[in-house]
Amino acid sequence: MNKLHMTLLAGALLVATAAGAQEATIRKNLLERIPQLQKIDEVSKSPIAGLYEVRVNGADIYYTDAEANYLVQGSLIDTKLKRNLTEERVDKLTAIAFDALPLKDAFTIVRGNGKRKLAVFEDPNCGYCKRFEEGMQKVNNVTVYMFLYPVLGPGSVEKSKNIWCAKDKGKAWNDWMLSDVEPANAKCDTQAIDRNMALGKKHKISGTPTLLFSDGTRVPGAIGAEQVEQHLAQVAGK
Fold this sequence. Notes:
Helix content is 41%, strand content 20%. By secondary structure, it is α+β, with helices and mostly antiparallel strands. It has 2 domains: 36-93, Disulphide bond isomerase, DsbC/G, N-terminal (Nuclear Transport Factor 2, Chain: A); 98-237, Glutaredoxin (3-Layer(aba) Sandwich). The longest helix has 31 residues, at 3-33. The radius of gyration is 23 Å and the shape is elongated.
């Protein structure tokens, strides 16, 4: 190893050591001053000199200075590129790879040839979900992976369990969502619903319906059939 390489290596080690010391200072000061932050997942430099990103609870983003004297909660906007950097960072942290979805915890509704793929997180007592389901009747040649996600209270949990335990889950779901036919009381292993709730919490799914297309695109809200078709077409064109 020549002198130049040794100098570069020494410089890199000094930078790494300084960065580690800076992170330790931020962690120490924040823990002492704001103990409710509890465990900090990561401290990293932001695009602004002297401003550091502090990540907690998986995907909650704060910003602080080098001594953690100030803590900022809000969005970091790139005014030149007109980009919300905080939103982009959260989207990346909470992204769900379609191929990694635990499909065993969902039931499927197949329309037409079922060639196109879509996963949806829905609560059976969600009015927006019912409106979404009405629109989905116009979407053909798709396989929908339905993840029951009862976030609206005990009534939603009970209906979700009865639908999950039905002999024909898809029929029980459609009967309720489209025709208001209550799912019959049924008993079975419903741990899949608990796992769905944990998965949604991990990835910050806070509302229903939430759609996930096979390219990883995530869309919250009851979009119409035309918008669903547009997203499916975009995925097919990639």
